[in-house]
Backbone:
């Protein structure tokens, strides 16, 4: 049992350490994609409801949205794409939205920030059913732009459905359609039609949500392909989507399969796909499942991808508008991680130390962290000193503090440290400094599955390659109670280690 | 501490928990046996 000790005294010895063959799964690459989509904020869940109830809401919202240039100069976005290290955020006093600064220039290490009009054009390219219709003039501008860029050219091979100005005007009169706006364009550049007049699961808003996830997820996959050696589109055997959307119809809402849709759109023609659902925690189970499939030999190259969440755009916009600050939730974020066979370099996914949250552990946060952080360490007979980094939900505090939701990352580290102090792993005097010693400052958009430890994978790889850290535990939690099938939460953690770490 | 059951007896309670703080089921557990009737309990997620 490898020294395992249960943290719940009435459930002794419930986990068995699996027998590991010698071929270890490793993370061979990771990338991010950020699509700055201010004109889609109006279709976030909260803004859409507010705009329906208050006609002047959209006017205020539009005034408070950033330009693409502003978004590129925002420090948390620069950290997201790897142009800055997360530690830089400790050095700059919050808030950060009033301290815009140019990045160092050059290619962003993890992925680009995509401008809105390119993303809108890609929505149509990604839509095989032609529910997204673009204005002819708009495509005449954007088609060549997409074709000219290495990132977007492979995704723009399908010519979208196009409308003349007169046809577009007629289409926009339909109450079931959603106009697509773009900053700087006077008239809508496109429209999203409903997929079925009697099926709410195929409404224009649901289709738009799903297409946003599909396109941003495929962008992250292509950023990954462009950033690594040894993985072409046809080398991908399996795509696991840990995205938040629910693809389906009225007979099977959430039936899936976003992963396969992303695989197809990204050109992974020999791969297949499966969705992994677990609210915001989904990326970590997806990584564990992906690593297990590589370990077992079932698949050689697995890509775990989380696409962006449209409903969460503008989620805190009411607070931001009240305070007269920019509406900061204006970008769709996506992450892709390649898990493959041991190449002697990529950090290993330690399947002996997968933390889980059993039903009986209950909902209290300290018990969650005992199960997700402490129990795996004790299974490995590790003290906390041996763990260099632990990353949990790193939501950007600029967004949440101004919305009276506090600094999520800081609060989590405080609770984690208190739990570790109770367990005699650290001294009480170390609680206050635990976050800075082992953790990361929040920087991710409030798209829960992305903000989970998943977003940190590219940084972890870079820090391990530089010799800054030996290992990193990724911890994700899920608010299952939101679906009203259980009052429980869920969670999972996984430990990744530098390839040369002692076994 | 002995006053708490008297305070809650005959009361209907609305419990709002928070996923990063104290969730509603934990609050329910904490006040079990103190009297009162839980009319509504929910945990909120603010991110």
Residues:
């Amino acid at each position: 049992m490898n020294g395992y000790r249960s943290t719940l005294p009435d459930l002794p010895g419930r986990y068995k350490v699996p027998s590991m063959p010698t071929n270890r799964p490793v993370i061979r690459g990771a990338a991010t994609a950020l699509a700055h989509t201010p004109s889609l904020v109006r279709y976030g869940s909260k803004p859409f409801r507010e705009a329906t109830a208050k006609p002047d809401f959209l006017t205020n919202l539009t005034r408070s949205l950033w330009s693409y240039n502003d978004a590129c100069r925002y420090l948390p976005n620069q950290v997201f794409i790897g142009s800055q290290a997360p530690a830089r955020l400790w050095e700059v006093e919050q808030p950060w939205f009033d301290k815009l600064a140019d990045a160092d220039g050059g290619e962003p290490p993890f992925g680009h920030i995509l401008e809105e009009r390119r993303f809108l054009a890609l929505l149509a390219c990604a839509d095989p059913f032609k529910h997204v219709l673009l204005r002819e003039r708009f495509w005449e501008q954007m088609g060549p732009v997409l074709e000219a860029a290495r990132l977007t050219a492979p995704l723009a091979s399908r010519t979208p459905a196009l409308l003349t100005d007169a046809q577009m005007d007629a289409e926009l009169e339909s109450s079931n359609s959603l106009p697509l706006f773009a900053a700087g364009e006077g008239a809508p550049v496109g429209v999203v039609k409903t997929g079925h007049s009697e099926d709410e699961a195929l409404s224009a808003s649901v289709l738009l949500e799903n297409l946003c996830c599909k396109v941003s997820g495929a962008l992250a996959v292509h950023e990954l392909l462009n950033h690594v050696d040894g993985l072409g589109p046809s080398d991908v055997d399996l795509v696991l989507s840990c995205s938040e959307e629910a693809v389906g119809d009225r007979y099977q809402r959430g039936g899936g399969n976003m992963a396969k849709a992303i695989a197809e759109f990204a050109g992974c023609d020999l791969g297949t796909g499966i969705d992994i659902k677990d609210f915001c925690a989904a990326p970590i189970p997806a990584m564990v499942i992906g690593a297990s499939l590589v370990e077992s030999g079932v698949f050689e190259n697995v890509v775990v991808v989380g696409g962006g969440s449209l409903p969460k755009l503008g989620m805190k916009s009411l607070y931001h508008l009240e305070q007269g600050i920019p509406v900061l939730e204006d970008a769709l974020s996506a992450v892709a991680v390649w898990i493959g066979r041991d190449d002697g370099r990529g950090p290993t996914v330690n399947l002996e130390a997968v933390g889980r949250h059993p039903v009986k552990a209950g909902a209290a946060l300290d018990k969650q962290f005992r199960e997700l952080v402490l129990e795996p360490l004790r299974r490995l007979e590790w003290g906390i000193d041996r763990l260099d980094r632990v990353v949990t939900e790193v939501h950007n505090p600029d967004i949440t503090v101004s919305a009276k939701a506090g600094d999520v990352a800081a609060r989590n580290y405080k609770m984690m440290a208190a739990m570790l102090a109770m367990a005699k792993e650290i001294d009480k005097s170390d609680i206050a400094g635990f976050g800075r010693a082992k953790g990361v400052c929040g920087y991710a958009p409030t798209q829960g599955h992305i903000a989970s430890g998943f977003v940190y994978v590219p940084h972890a790889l870079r820090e391990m390659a530089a010799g800054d850290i030996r290992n990193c535990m990724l911890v994700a939690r899920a608010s299952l109670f939101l679906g009203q099938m259980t009052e429980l939460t869920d969670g999972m953690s996984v430990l990744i280690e530098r390839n040369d770490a002692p076994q | 501490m002995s006053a708490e059951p008297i305070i809650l007896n005959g009361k209907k309670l609305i419990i709002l928990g928070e996923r990063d703080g104290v969730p509603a089921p934990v609050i329910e557990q904490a006040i079990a046996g103190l009297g009162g009737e839980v009319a509504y309990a929910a945990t909120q997620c603010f991110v």
Residues 348-497 of chain A form a domain with the Peroxisomal Thiolase; Chain A, domain 1 fold (CATH 3.40.47). The first strand of chain A starts at residue 25 and ends at 36. The radius of gyration of chain A is 22 Å. The longest helix of chain A spans residues 204-227.
